[in-house]
Amino acid sequence: MSEQRVRIIAVANEKGGVGKTVTVLNLGAALASEGKRVLVVDMDPQSNATRGLGLTPNGDSITTYDLIKDRKANPAENAVIETGWEGLSLIPAHADLAGADIELANEFGRENRLKRALAPIIGDYDYIFLDTPPSLSLLTVNVFSFATEVLVPCQTHPFAYAALDELFDTIEAIREEINPQLNVTGVVATFFDSRTRVSRSILEKLQQDNRCRGLLFGTVIRVNTAIAESTDIGKPVIHFRRGSYGAEDYSGLARELVSREAA
Questions:
Q1: Neighbours of 49 (CB within 10 A)
Q2: Which residues contact 239 (CB under 8 A, 6 or more apart)?
Q3: pTM above the 0.90 mark?
Q4: Cβ distance 178 to 213 under 8 Å?
């Protein structure tokens, strides 16, 4: 496969609890179910994407920490784990990632560690999704240095909406200083509850926001207990409860993402 066809997508927001990890997992699963080859890369020390695919972080697997610490001793192809669903692969995270900022502080080229580690395998996939920590750190910078696209989940809540300014500023700074190929592919409204005034109000603000002009996905991820339940048992929602709103919404988002070319 030509590397030019691979879409490397960071799912990011500097505020926690907005649906980054569930978006990574369920978008990846939805695309894999349509025959795409998908790799999920867990770059969050909390390892929620790893657990969300039914795996427990332990010392037996090569993790993203190992890749950015010493890629020569830990080749990326040895880190890939095949999940229980065809076409969906994972490179797991470990809590050791939390110390990477300090350990690599004085290392030359520290912001490109992930990019160099994953370069040999990117041609094996149609989509690579990167889950990010809910803060700006060396890990986030490594993700943005490697990615070509950013997908921004925004919870329909005032705090999440207010956090968009900082995120867009960060992405612009990365574009100017490190990775000029990085672009925002889209913003997706998450945890939408049509019964609440606040949720409806924030969705309306996103629809009218100049920053989101042309970026806001038409698909909205509605509040749905099936999403949380599926994550808790380590199974993507489309495989847990196919008829749920969660499965319907993420399948719709996957179709919209496929149709939306990288900027």
A1: 29
A2: 29, 85, 230
A3: yes
A4: no
Domains held by the chain: number = 1
Q: Residue 15's closest CA among 175, 190, 183?
A: 190
Measured at the alpha carbon of residue 235, what is the angle toward residues 233 and 238, in degrees to the nearest 5? 135
Q: CA torsion angle for 205, 207, 209, 215 (degrees, to 10)?
A: 140
The domain in which residue 223 lies consists of 3-259
What CA–CA distance (Å, rounded) separates 32 from 37?
Answer: 6
CB 29 within 8 A of CB 42: no
96 neighbors 135 (Cβ within 8 angstroms): no
**Residue 12: what residue type?**
A
CATH number of residue 251's parent domain: 3.40.50.300
pLDDT of residue 173: 94
Report the Cα 212 to chain-centroid distance in Å.
19
Which two tokens mark 32?
A: 């894999």
State the Cα–Cα distance between residues 27 and 7, nearest whole angstrom: 13
pLDDT (tens digit per residue) in 181-210: 999 999 999 999 999 999 999 999 999 999
Whole-number Å distance between alpha carbons of 50 and 28: 13
